[in-house]
């Protein structure tokens, strides 16, 4: 709660597993930044605990907290680079803070710039870089002290779509290569779609739902599913909304339905999305015929999620 | 005055102005910088919020800024005597000059430091930086060009104030212009002095601009 009386977060309970990319989706003002800032205690929650890598940060003293923060990298929407420092000196900053000796710093900086694909830019100043390059510097800097966790506050929101994709790909690669746990917040669904293993949806300081993306999609009434596959809501009476979880979207389910049960199928709407390379779909249909009950059972038997709108 | 007489007089006056302005600039930077930084860091949402100290500093700075220099100079004569042991002369003039310029420069520093984005400060804190590190390695380097630009404005203001310091025997170019040009109707001295002041101000401003530009990587 802020001293203005705003309760920015209320009853938030998130569990981010080691080594995963966890995305928090929500509109502006939902409390996402506040949530992220609570993780490294830039914002101290009025109540509750924050545990990172097994350590409760809320009980730490000043010096211990500063040490713990070095194990948590952070990247920012507007990059937060020091305009007075070169790229190399920006990346070296957290190492200076951690009192790493100069020679060691220099070697580490070279290594990091190569990791994020900025080898030739060591002596440039941030003002001479594009947005995507600036965020790469931000990422290199965040990783300098070898954190286990990376926090990302709308890291791609100021970037164009192409650059966004390349930054997301970089995050994905770092996650895979370094085993880095990433907690990111975004108001853009496509960020969740393209790189997140797990997700949470926030609204007005509360978490509406959270879990692995594929689990959430298989859950009836999921808000994430609705945002991911926008169909006219509410569903018209008598309609069926069928969600095809991972791998099922390519199966010829509908033709089987028509053939086996002699029902008529009207397609009212639908969409297909790639979730980290796996097709997932959602279809709204109306089914008419003799044996609709058996047809429904058939669909459910194939592992599809069927939500009925009672007429 | 003949040219032979004029040159040494001008030279001496220029040296006095330089002495007053340089010393008071140095002292202004020494006191104005921390006060300006504190005005930001002790404020609401600052690094070390201390509302009481912030209010006092703000009030003192405002009082200093609202006093006309000539009034300030006379009002603090006892203080000047306490510090320098005298109330007349070039050295004595440095005290009111500094006192007059510190609040001015502190406000310029304050607004420069406010220009550093919250995100940048938080980024440093998120890396585990101490507050003093944030000030020394983030706030000051990031505002250095603006601090230099502000100091340039202050130097120019000090050159102006220093003319008034002639009133307490501070000497300098302004004093020369008043004594010879105004009181003795020596127009030549008046004109030469004014031209000299203009040239000096131009030089200072250009130098300051150049330095600020060199330091800026935005
Ligand atoms: N420093 C602050 N003081 C008071 N209220 C704040 C502060 N920062 C954010 N808020 C409020 O908290 C709520 C959540 O903000 P935020 O976490 O920034 O949302 P998001 O990042 O999802 O856009 C908003 O209503 C915002 O106005
Ligand atoms: Mg935000």
From TrEMBL, chain B:
One annotated GO biological process: D-methionine transmembrane transport
Keyword Cell membrane among UniProt keywords: yes
Positions of transmembrane segments: 20-40, 52-76, 82-106, 146-169, 189-212
PROSITE patterns, A to Z: ABC_TM1 (PS50928)
Major localization listed first in the record, in broad terms: membrane
Stretches assigned to the ABC transmembrane type-1 domain: 14-205
Subcellular localization(s) per the UniProt record: Cell membrane
A Pfam family assignment: BPD_transp_1
Membrane topology type: Multi-pass membrane protein
GO CC field: plasma membrane
Keywords: Cell membrane, Membrane, Transmembrane, Transmembrane helix, Transport
Stretches assigned to coiled coil: none
Record PANTHER family: ABC TRANSPORTER PERMEASE, D-METHIONINE TRANSPORT SYSTEM PERMEASE PROTEIN METI-RELATED
Similarity comment: Belongs to the binding-protein-dependent transport system permease family. CysTW subfamily.
Protein name from the UniProt record: D-methionine transport system permease protein
Species for this entry: Thermocatellispora tengchongensis
